[in-house]
Specification:
By secondary structure, the protein is mainly α. It contains 2 helices and no strands. About 80% of the residues lie in helices and about 0% in strands.
Length: about 70
């Protein structure tokens, strides 16, 4: 299941409330949800990092192609 930004925000808010109350409720423990939300955030950061790296590599490859064509 893929959550959009609004769903993640709502989940985070509900989880924060549950952590403040510290009363067990049905479903997953609040700590588990918190850990999952941290994982989602870390994954987003990694994805952005790899996208930037791919763009940099793509631009370097384009420069190398142009340089090679100019030499020929």
């Amino acid at each position: 299941m893929i959550l959009n930004a609004n769903q993640l925000k709502a989940l985070r808010q509900r989880n924060d409330e549950e952590l403040r109350k510290e009363q067990p409720s049905y479903g997953y423990p609040a700590q588990t949800i918190r850990d999952l939300l941290h994982t989602v955030e870390a994954t987003k950061k990694e994805k952005k990092k790899w996208q930037r790296l791919a763009q940099e590599r793509g631009s370097v490859i384009e420069i190398m192609k142009r340089t090679r064509e100019e030499q020929i």
